[in-house]
Amino acid sequence: MGETKNAVAMSKLDQVIARSEIKAVIDRYGILARDDSPWDEVRKSFATDAVYYIPGGKQLPPTRLEEVLQGGSAEYIRHHVTTCDIKFVSATEALVETNFIAITDTAWPDHWGCWKDTFKVQADGDWKIQSRRICVDNGVPQGWFMKNYGKWHQLPVHHDVHTL
User: Fold this and answer.
1) CA separation for the pair 125, 98 (Å, rounded)
2) Cα distance between residue 149 and residue 135, in whole Å
3) 161 has pLDDT over 60
4) How far apart are CA 42 and CA 33, in angstroms?
5) What is the distance between the alpha carbons of residues 146 and 112, in angstroms, rounded to a whole number?
6) What is the Cα–Cα distance from 35 to 53, expressed in whole angstroms?
7) CB–CB of 87/95 below 8 Å?
8) Number of neighbouring beta carbons within 10 Å of residue 7
9) Where are the beta strands (DSSP E) in 91-126?
10) 3-state SS of the chain: helix, strand, coil percent to 5?
11) What are phi and psi of 122, to 5 degrees?
C-alpha cells in the first residue's frame, strides 16, 4: 500500500501515524491556499529550507510563497484535495502525489492537477513539505490560472510521481 520496494522498514503503526500526519499537512495547505491566504500559516506546512516549484519551473523558498499568484490574486479561489498517494522512501522521508481541483470566481473548475511533494521529518518530529511541484494538467481558457500562467501546463505524469 503506497510503499517503494527499497523503503526502510517501518512498523504498521508508524506508517499509519506518518500517513495521518502527512495527510493533515496536505489538507491544511488545501484549506489555506485560497484568495485571502494567511501566508505565515501556509509557510508552516514547509521545512524552512524547502523549495516550491511553480508552473514554468520557477523555484521559490517558503518565504516567497505568495509569488505563486504572479501578481494576480483571484477574488475567490479554493483548492479541493482529492486522492493522495504516499510512498515511504525511509522512516523520515516520503514521496507524495496529491490530486487537486481549483475553483475560482471566474471558472468552476478553474484548473486541476497534482502536487508532487517530498515530505521529511523535521528536528521537532513533525512531517513537513521539503519540496513541492505544482503540476497543472489543464485549465479552462477564461480561468484565473490560464490568465496568469498562459497556455503553459504540465501534462499528467503516469510513472514516477516526481518526474517532470
Assistant:
1) 22
2) 12
3) no
4) 7
5) 11
6) 19
7) yes
8) 16
9) 93-104, 111-121
10) 25, 35, 40
11) -90, 175
Q: Which amino acid is at 1?
A: M
* Chain position carrying cell 471566474: 106
Torsion angle in degrees (nearest 10) through CA of 101, 104, 110, 112: -20
Contact 106, 143 (CB under 8 A): yes
Give the Cα separation of 160 and 69 in Å (integer): 27
Its pTM surpasses 0.90: no
**Residues with Cβ within 8 Å of residue 121, at least 6 apart in sequence:** 91, 92, 93, 127
Please tell me whether the peptide bond between 109 and the residue prior to it is cis, using omega within 30 degrees of 0. yes
pLDDT tens sequence across 82-117: 999 999 999 999 999 999 999 999 999 999 999 999
pLDDT given for residue 111 in this prediction: 94
**CATH 3.40.50.300 corresponds to the domain 12-149:** no
Q: Is the separation of the CB atoms in 111 and 68 below 8 Å?
A: no
Inter-residue contact 88 to 21 (CB < 8 Å): no
pLDDT of 162 over the 80 cut: no
